[in-house]
Design brief:
This protein has 1210 residues and is mainly beta. It is built from eleven helices and 90 strands. The strands form 18 sheets. Strands 21, 23, 28, 29, 30, 34, 35 and 37 form an eight-stranded antiparallel β-sheet that branches. Strands 42, 43, 44, 45, 47, 50, 52 and 53 form an eight-stranded antiparallel β-sheet that branches. Strands 54, 56, 61, 62, 63, 65, 66 and 67 form an eight-stranded antiparallel β-sheet that branches.
């Protein structure tokens, strides 16, 4: 169709504004496929953008939208060129309306228009709910198939009612029912199988299709499809009816078009049949004119056509919106009597009457009015009685008896009213209303909105008349993974709480994809949620991560991992058991697939119970496949572990149980063939004979190694790259990877389309840039780092783009986000190859390593592609520079091909990061002795030892640290002796002989034998000793010859340390304490580079240790079990930080309560047998006395050469 005149040169209205339109009547409903525009001939008049509207009746227009949100179409850039736009979804309509949005600023609106389409065939019928409708019953001879298709087009103004009902031969069936504008699929067995669509009561045609395949059904409403499983009792449809009266609701009025069933157009058949009753074969629809308020400056101003009766008014209308708040209408009372405001607040209807800034009256009615449904409102005031009614009998009513007349002065504003304040600017005292209104009445007279549109009545601004432009942005929901969608008029929001996902659309998982990833975040063994496919459809699952020094295991339990015994039962020839795993099938398959190794223990204990061929097991995907090999053997071998190693109890058999012996024996081992895992069920056949007994055990499934986490490639040139198939992330895309480099820039990833693109790059040594274009122009998101990113350490990048926003995360820096345009393009359309490590132009390539690259939860196999690509090498070594800091307590980081390992050999700790305390419970008779090299071992093959050997055997000092917990006092914790009878001892409550030569320094150490965990650190050099206990000051002593330090304060408990004695025998007090033994806990004992307690517990056979009495390893030294006062508070005292618990008796609430003054040493060196006293201050507070005592001694010789050293614990 052409619309222009050679002389006029095209259409050009007298006024160029956005309230003009060009309407085309095609004569009949036509399938419109494209439109083309051109400027006015020989002029500077053309449109640069426009809207398209369609209608069947010339009223109730519907805007055509691209991608469900884009409303505008690109126009022309000159008057001569033709711009054609093909409609992605053809529109079926009789009327077309084009509304100009923008035009040449140096000209005016000018247009030549052409439309493209084809005839449309239709069979239409109208049902009013009172007739029997349409009923089709198939003949008994009709062929029943497992695949059936039912499709229909419908339109209605009612939001509830029965649409179709299909019934099978057994009486069971399916229905299509409209409920609050949504299409439900109930059955005679289940009340709701599916819910799809929204706002289906808009009096526009909607397409519905049901496609049944077996017990699965695809339900399509317009362009959106949902797949559901139907009950087995619902068979093939035998009859089809359109809303039978027995189940119809409220005289449901609906128009149906082209009802197709089994290839037949049932409306066409009924039309050709004379016995069609009261059915009307046309679509009779009432004309209802709506008005849309889309923006902040929308309003509709109407005069009061008929004068109100004295003191009376009546206003009625219907509205629908998603907003909780907004002004519905306002008017002034006569004679400056005040202002009436009717508005929404918190989705409730509120009426306020104000005068001179004072509220004269307030009413509230209704609730939940922002649900997108049509709601009716009536305000009436007669004879001093004011009533506000919402939804008539179904809603609520509020009444009042004002003492003043309520009437409209001269005009009423709907949707908004802009007031001029003191700043001469427009303001709206309430939130704007965004929504639709219809059926407006003033004083019981209908408002003719068509006259308003033609500017023959009232005034308006920024409204759309004769259409309701409401959009349900939550149908279909853009919230993924079960996120709950809510919306306003312009945007939607996703509530991701409880879903395990995050982001604007709940797209990205909050959990890691494997235990390996948790380990490299610094976590130790425990239960974790693992999301094996990241943002993919597989749900997170709870697993146990067993992180050992060597490997990281993902452990998945089932319903019975204990050894279970069975006995012969009369009449029972077989015993079968099934194992149920808490994870779903797709989760198990993904875990096994991405793991480097999986295993599961299978043990069969037997007594006169043969295995093969009477017993077998099922393993693998689904319900599993029968397997005849057993733990430790190979698939298909029909053997057990002993058969593989040749050590079965009977060499004639390949399994121990096959020997059929009357003594207990077993066949056990690990199943490691991943295709046969996990074990699903077990069948034991030889359990019915007298005397037959058996037991089985199927352990949990354990998998280690994450192939995806360590999949890496090294790019050694800026021109090198890897290419993969096109990335498909039209609506949502997340990209995550790790990189390390020494370069300051380079492109990590790029994928191009015709106009669209997506790219992630290192734009500088401190910035990562994420850029893309989906048709709205390039958009960039960047994150700046406070540290250089080209430090050859691993850095993590996570980028996400969805219909709401784009976000970029780098390491642990805060995420950067950019919102997407509310009504812009949102489909990302790419068509080229995906380039990794470079670009299609081979410029700005990346040099370095990229690892664990995932796009929408799918890992790209960089190593496989790198093996066949020049300039790129698979794998990337060097992980300790990034993860070495995880190895604590003197643990050493060791490189591995895939990752790293913390070597805890020199540490007193163990565990994956050398953070697990090695602790043991001691009893009175328990001791551990660690012996260093004897002198005679060095003398065996040497007649004379040079002085250097003695020098090497000399200890210049000691670093001793340990933790203990005990109620015993006094007690000997640690004793070190030398070949020359020099010793070091650590004691609890060691009271010095008061007659000895002692010097005293006072402090507040007390209460260590209280069952709580305490740590002690001792450091001795040739001329200084320091002792440190947490929550106390460090005690120092310098220039000593021999030192014995301890504490004693009345009834308080104390620590003691003695170093160096020239006595040939053990100190009598120490001998007495040693005889008492030690009862309690010792943990993380460290002496220089030796960890004697760890050696005794973990390596007793290869270490020079002697263990006496019961030594039990426990977790008594762990921080979790140490102090019942777990809460730690930090306070400041004299510029120093002290930590403690308020409930602890030694915790000081106020820095002014106690003070401690320490005197400097007066002399730096003490002479033989001389005395020097150092006295501190003490205070009394609540009759409690706190003292710190240091006693110093001098000896005849210095303790600098230690030959033989014995270290004894306990």
């Amino acid at each position: 169709m052409h619309l222009w005149h050679p002389r006029a040169g095209g259409w050009s209205p007298l006024t160029s504004d956005r309230y003009q339109w060009l309407e085309v009547d095609l004569g009949e409903r036509t399938k419109i496929t494209a439109v083309a525009t051109q400027g006015r001939y020989g002029s500077s008049d053309w449109l640069s953008s426009y809207l398209l509207m369609f209608s069947d009746t010339g009223h109730n227009w519907k805007q055509y939208r691209q991608e469900d949100s884009i409303g505008s179409f690109p126009g022309n850039s000159n008057a001569d060129s033709v711009v054609q736009y093909k409609l992605r979804q053809p529109a079926v309509a009789r009327f077309l309306r084009l509304i100009p949005l923008d035009w040449n600023p140096n000209g005016r609106i000018g247009l030549r228009l052409e439309t493209y389409g084809c005839p449309y065939s239709e069979y239409v019928m109208s049902l009013d709910g009172s007739s029997a409708g349409l009923v089709y019953r198939g003949s008994p001879e009709s062929r029943q198939t497992s695949t059936e298709v039912i499709s229909v087009e419908f339109k209605t103004q009612r939001n509830s009612g029965m649409l179709l009902h299909a019934e099978g031969q057994e009486g069971h069936g399916l229905s299509l029912e409209l409920d609050r504008g949504k299409l439900l699929l109930p059955s005679t067995i289940s009340p709701r199988l599916a819910s799809l669509g929204s706002l289906l009561d808009d009096q526009h045609w909607h397409h519905v299709k049901m496609e049944r395949r077996g017990f699965h059904l695809n339900l399509t409403v317009d362009k959106h499809t949902e797949r559901v499983q139907i009950p087995a009792d619902v068979g093939a449809a035998h009859s089809l009816s359109s809303h039978p009266p027995s189940v119809s609701k409220k005289n449901f009025h609906v128009c149906l078009e082209n009802l197709l069933f089994r290839g037949l157009n049932l409306i066409g058949l009924a039309k050709n049949n004379d016995q069609h009753g009261n059915v009307t074969f046309s679509c009779a629809e009432s004309v209802s004119v709506a008005v849309t308020f889309p923006g902040p400056r929308s309003f509709l101003q109407l005069p009061v056509v008929t004068a109100s009766s004295p003191g009376g008014v009546s206003v009625g209308f219907q509205f629908r919106t998603w907003n909780k708040a907004g002004l519905l209408f306002t008017f002034d009372l006569p004679q400056q009597g005040g202002v009436v405001w009717l508005y929404l607040s918190d989705a409730r209807l509120r009426l306020q009457i104000h005068k001179a800034g004072r509220a004269l009256l307030e009413l509230t009615a209704g609730s939940g009015l922002n649900d997108g449904q049509w709601h009716s409102v009536e305000l009436t005031s007669r004879r001093g009685h004011l009533t506000v009614t919402v939804d008539k009998e179904e809603g609520g009513t509020a009444t009042a008896n004002p003492t003043f007349p309520v009437a409209i002065d001269s005009q009423i504003f709907f949707g908004g009213k802009w007031l001029i304040d003191d700043t001469k600017e427009c303001r709206n005292p309430f939130n704007i209303f965004q929504g639709c209104m219809s059926h407006l009445t003033l004083n019981n007279l209908d408002v003719d909105l068509i006259r308003v549109q033609r500017k023959q009545l009232g005034n308006y601004s920024n409204v759309q008349i004769d259409m309701c432009g409401i959009i349900d942005r939550c149908s279909p929901s853009r919230c993924e993974h079960g996120g709950r969608c809510s919306q306003s008029w312009t945007v939607f929001h996703c509530n991701c709480s409880g879903s395990g996902y995050t982001g604007a659309t709940c797209h990205s998982s909050v959990y890691e994809q494997s235990c390996e990833a948790y380990k490299h975040n610094g976590n130790t063994s425990g239960h974790f949620y693992v999301d094996v496919d990241g943002s993919g459809p597989i749900k997170p699952q709870l697993v146990y991560c067993n992180m050992t020094e060597d490997n990281t295991w993902m452990v998945i339990q089932h319903n019975n991992t204990e050894t279970t015994r069975i006995r012969a039962s009369p009449g029972v020839n077989q015993y079968s058991v099934h194992f149920h795993y808490p994870t779903e099938e797709e989760q198990l398959s993904a875990i096994i697939s991405q793991s480097e190794h999986c295993q599961q223990e299978l043990s069969y204990h037997c007594k006169k119970s043969q295995g093969s061929p009477f017993s077998w097991w099922f393993g693998g995907p689904g319900s599993g496949h029968p397997q005849t090999y057993w733990g430790g053997a190979q698939p298909g071998s029909q053997q057990c572990s002993c058969g593989l190693h040749g050590d079965c109890v009977d060499p004639q058999h390949y399994c121990n149980c096959d020997a059929d012996r009357s003594q207990w024996t077993e066949d056990s081992g690990l199943l490691t063939h991943k295709a046969s895992l996990p074990v699903r069920s077990l069948v034991l056949g030889d359990v019915h004979r007298p005397g037959s007994e058996a037991a089985y055990r199927v352990g949990p499934l354990s998998c280690r190694g994450d192939k995806n986490f360590w999949n890496a490639a090294f790019f050694d040139k800026e021109t090198s790259y890897l290419h993969f198939p096109t990335f498909h992330g039209e609506l949502s895309a997340d990209i995550s990877f790790m990189f390390k480099t020494t370069s300051s820039s380079g492109v990590f990833l790029e994928n191009l389309g015709i106009k669209d693109f997506i790219r992630i790059e290192l734009s500088s040594s401190t910035q990562v840039l994420f850029s893309f274009d989906v048709g709205n122009g390039p958009l960039e998101v960047h994150v700046n780092s406070s540290v250089p990113l080209n430090d050859n350490r691993w850095h993590r990048v996570r980028a996400e783009r969805n219909v709401k926003e784009a976000s970029l995360r780098l390491d642990h820096f805060p995420a950067a986000t950019q919102e997407a345009p509310a009504d812009g393009h949102f489909h990302l359309q790419l068509n080229s190859q995906l380039f990794i490590g470079g670009t299609a132009s081979r410029q700005k390539g990346f040099r370095g390593c990229i690892r664990s690259l995932q796009l929408n939860g799918v890992t790209l196999d960089l190593e496989e592609r790198a093996q066949i690509t020049p300039g790129v090498r698979p794998g990337c070594p060097g992980h300790c520079s990034s993860y070495g800091s995880l190895c604590q307590n003197q643990g050493r980081c060791v490189e591995r091909d895939n990752g790293f390992q913390c070597h805890c050999g020199p540490s007193a700790y163990t565990g994956v990061f050398c953070t697990t305390e090695v602790s043991a419970s001691f009893k009175a008779g328990t001791s551990v002795s660690y012996t260093f090299k004897e002198p005679y071992e060095l003398m065996r093959n040497n007649s004379a030892l040079p002085s250097s050997i003695y020098s090497d055997m000399t200890l210049k000092g000691e670093n001793v640290s340990l933790s203990f917990r005990t109620f015993q006092s006094p007690a000997l914790l640690l004793y070190v002796s030398s070949y020359y009878r020099e010793y070091l001892a650590l004691l609890v409550r060691y009271k010095l002989d008061s007659s000895g030569d002692a010097e005293v320094l006072k402090s507040r150490v007390r209460g260590v034998a209280n069952g709580q965990l305490h740590s002690v650190s001792i450091r001795r050099t040739a001329h200084a000793v320091s002792v440190q206990v947490p929550r106390t000051n460090t005690t120092h002593l310098t220039n000593y010859d021999c030192v014995c330090a301890g504490t004693t304060t009345g009834t308080s408990l104390s620590l003691g340390l003695c170093v160096c004695s020239d006595s040939e025998e053990l100190d009598p007090d120490l001998s007495r304490l040693a005889s008492l033994g030690f009862t309690g806990c010792l943990s993380v004992v460290h002496f220089n580079s030796i960890s004697p307690l760890k050696a005794a517990l973990l390596h007793p056979d290869t270490s020079p240790v002697v263990i006496s009495g019961p030594l039990v390893q426990s977790n008594c030294g762990s921080s979790a079990s140490a102090n019942p006062y777990a809460a730690v508070n930090t306070h400041h005292l004299s510029g120093k930080t002290f930590s403690g618990n308020r409930n602890h008796p030694g915790f000081f609430l106020n820095t002014e309560d106690y003070y401690f003054a320490f005197f400097d040493m007066l002399k730096q060196k003490c002479c033989s047998f001389s005395r020097i006293g150092f006295f501190g201050s003490y205070v009394r507070q609540k009759r409690k006395k706190f003292l710190f005592e240091i006693c110093s001694y001098t000896a005849k010789k210095a303790c600098t050469k230690i030959r033989k050293v014995n270290l004894i614990l306990g």
